[in-house]
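Researcher: I'd like a structural prediction for the single chain below. Treat it as a standalone chain; there are no partners to consider.
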Amino acid sequence: MRIGLSGFASLGLPGLLKMRAQAAAMAGGKKADRTAVIMVWQPGGCSHLDTYDPKPDIGSEYRGPFKTIATKIPGTRITELLPLQARIADKFTILRSMNQKAAGHPAGSMQLLSGDPDTRDKPKPRYPDWMSVAASIRAREGGRSNPLPNYIGVNPVIEYNGPVYVGAAYAPFSISGDPNRPDFEVPNIGLSDKSDAVRLGDRVMLRKSLDTMERAFDTLGELGALDQFESQAVALLTNPQTRDAFDLNKEDTQTRDRYGRNRWGQQLLLARRLVEAGVEIITSSLSGPQCGRVANWDDHAVNHNIFDALRFRSAAYDQAVSALIEDVYARGLDKRVLVVVTGEFGRTPKIEYSPSTGGGDGSAPAGTSQPGRDHWPRAFSNIWAGGGIQTGGVIGATDKRGEDVIERACGPDDFLATIYHHLGIDSSKEVINDFNGRPTHIVQNGRPIPELMGRG
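Model: Treating it as a single chain, here is the predicted structure.
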């Protein structure tokens, strides 16, 4: 963020704040209860058979090497790779009957996160993702004085998605660094040096002095309006609440250790801090080196030995997700905050073998034949916690091989409608205008999943 004599009119942040207010002014709205969503994203697609929907009695051409373990819920078993989640299974619900129609990463992500029914992979999204839509509706509802941005991506989910015709003002405030690094800090949040704060104040006053001559000619009131957004930008820079929300050093050592002293653990700890600070839409993508050689969950045999990759990443994943869910309940956030953990699809039940294209974490040396699973949109699992829902259960079922949904099929529109419902948004009625100005429903055909609608 630049701080100079030109004032804040040229800064990205005040302009962004102004864009959001302009968009909000285009329509009135009812203020919703300030609920929130944390979506934990598994880019590339997690194997449902090796995690939340194991099939221990199928043949070796389908069955992986992992045993199943009992959870805290009698009769519900998951993979041995997730012992911490098994112990808190009463605090989340497993949805085993998700499915969609697109087999590619772009189209699959667009289906789940925006409701785009097109099965073709496209270079850019056609519909805005639910996060941007929700952020725009929240802004229109008004009534929020928090200096923090309302949609934040902690290692954001941005690939194959975006705000599209909702407008760039509703893209996420992105945090792309590693929160586990000792020198981690978020740019443009807070001023740690008192002299910077003094200089900032001096420049704001100088800008106001220079503007005095212009105000007589400001027949449209633009300068007065700009002051509002400059004030918000200054608040983001100087308000202690903003800097404190991002400061993981405010957490005790035991808590940081419980989440895991790695990027994923500290990402989800930061997500919890932000939701406590009043941020309402948070996404966090579990990608990068902790996934293995190719830095995501796309466990084709050419990328990873899927079973070695799952072993490699499972401890950090299990620890971070279980700590987040436990904290949501322990800190009294479970009615207000919904946690969703998902990827765009599952992996093929039948194991395939191909030569590795390179050695590394989770992958044998190049040329070595190794097992993998390909893309599988016909059936996959995700987990839901908090949000006032009835937890400790399983929704839906797949067939004996995990190939197809046989009970309580849920699609992308149901997924989206459920999230919107938690945020107090009626997706059956809510419309936004597309690029041509045509009203477009934010969800086309889905309805909230009853078991995930909360208990009021």
